[in-house]
Design a protein that fits this description.
Order of helices and strands: EHEEHEHHHEHEEHEEEEHEEHHEEEEEHE
CATH superfamily of the largest domain: ATP-grasp fold, B domain
CATH architecture of the largest domain: 2-Layer Sandwich
Radius of gyration: 21 Å
Structural class: alpha+beta
CATH topology of the largest domain: D-amino Acid Aminotransferase, Chain A, domain 1
Strand content: 25-35%
CATH class of the largest domain: Alpha Beta
Length: about 425
């Protein structure tokens, strides 16, 4: 390991493996104790892995300080790739006097209701929202706006415990699930209580949820850098929803995205800048999700100071050769030199998710009929024979078998392509 590593706080073992394989001499990982002994970490130099209970900042600080002094290391930056580790990453960066987005701004972003409130105050397009902790409060919001609503956790991610409700019966069922499932996630870092910003009423993510208006339109995601008052888009992708899965589940990411006709890139830059400033950010690498309704003006759904995850880094790298994970490390180390023009592929690429057909234990899994297809560029399996499959609401990530990255004609029907690929993946679950 060289003397000036970037400290990566948190993240999952599969991402640790990806980052380490590309930058083995440039990173020092601080991981939660629960990942000790994970198979993905086998073969990684032990000196690159530090383990601590990330919720205990004093312990984490001690572990890091001891390693840096023992090995005479002078870190050049702190990086973070997942939302649940942003707060300990900010605290560690402050302790080490390294650049990182402020803790107060991160708290605003992690609390989705707080973010909505600040955006509304700044007149930034975002769904109307309220906090609810029982059925009556949820129904009151629905009866007030008199249209479809979405229920979601205050600080969750992805499609976990996210419900679209068109009527009161659907609301009753969704509230019942939230009241049952949220308390079961108290040990999940994503659902831990968020530090309270000044003059804000405390919210328990395991006892309350957000109820917000449903905004119709295609959804998109982007990475951007905010520096010296300027926004630079680094990555843009479209989101295709899985119609046969629970609401919010992603069938595929598309690159480059296909925006509606009235969409304006200048409007997106304007909205992103105002949204970041209103949360209290002045610098960093961000991911944002947004919907583009009929009027073409982006409606911000989420913004967080980390790069996009899931299969997005693989998708962009296969399509363009551009490494998003390395970009984040370079930004956080202060060594990022943006290209004059970000290249866009002449063809359409997509990363298509494979969902397990049922719960149980995998006894047979064979993707060999997919590999020979000339338009298949990569196949990543997250499951193996012997692994168990658990469905929502108990677990939302466990049902994902993996993803396939393909290059297609711009007019290709992704739903048909997905069904065809799914038919080629041979799997048996008992």
């Amino acid at each position: 390991m060289w003397c000036e590593p970037v400290i990566v706080v948190g993240t999952t073992p599969d991402y640790v493996r990806k980052i380490y394989d590309k930058y083995p001499a440039s990173v020092l990982f601080v991981l939660d104790l629960r990942f000790q002994g994970d198979p993905f970490l086998e073969g990684i130099e032990k000196s690159a892995l530090l383990f601590s209970y990330l919720e205990d900042f004093e312990q984490t600080m001690h572990v890091v300080d001891l390693n840096l002094s023992t090995n005479n290391l002078s870190p050049q930056g702190v990086a973070c790739f997942d939302c649940e580790s942003l707060i300990p990453a900010a605290r560690l960066a402050h302790h080490l006097r390294l650049p990182f987005p402020s803790l107060e701004a991160i708290v605003h972003a992690r609390n989705k209701f707080e973010a909505r409130s600040l955006w509304k105050k700044a007149e930034i397009p975002t769904p109307a929202a309220a906090i609810a902790s029982n059925l009556n409060e949820t129904l009151d919001f629905f009866r007030c706006i008199k249209r479809t609503i979405v229920l979601k956790p205050v600080s969750g991610s992805g499609s976990e415990l996210v419900f679209r409700c068109d009527d009161e019966e659907e609301i009753k069922r969704a509230v019942g699930t939230l009241k049952d499932e949220l308390p079961r996630r108290e040990s999940n870092p994503l659902f831990r209580p968020i530090p309270i910003p000044s003059k804000t009423t405390p919210i328990d993510p395991c006892r309350s949820w957000i109820v917000e208006e449903f905004v119709s339109g295609p959804e998109f995601s982007c990475d951007f850098m905010f520096q010296n008052g300027q926004i630079m888009i680094i990555r843009e992708t479209g989101k295709i929803k899985a119609l046969d899965q629970l609401f919010g589940s992603i069938l595929a990411y598309t690159f480059p995205p296909s925006y509606p006709e009235r969409f304006s890139g200048e409007n997106l830059l304007y909205v992103l800048k105002r949204a970041a400033i209103s949360l209290g950010f002045i610098w960093g690498h961000f991911m944002a999700d947004f919907i583009v309704p009929d009027d073409g003006l982006p409606v911000i759904i989420e913004m967080t100071p980390r790069p996009g995850g899931d299969s997005i880094p693989d998708l962009v790298e296969i399509a363009t050769g551009y490494d998003l994970l390395g970009t984040h490390l370079h930004i956080m180390s202060g060594k990022f030199q943006p290209p004059e023009v970000f290249s866009m592929p002449p063809e359409s690429f997509a990363s298509i998710n494979f969902f397990a057909p049922k719960e149980g234990v995998i006894i047979y899994l064979d993707p060999s009929r997919i590999f020979p297809l000339p338009w298949v560029k990569a196949m990543v399996l997250k499951k193996n024979v012997g692994d168990g499959i658990v469905f929502p609401p108990a677990d939302y990530d466990n049902r994902l078998l993996g993803y396939c990255i393909v290059s297609l004609d711009f007019n290709s029907n992704l739903f048909s392509v997905s069904q065809y690929l799914q038919s080629l993946l041979k799997i048996s679950i008992v």
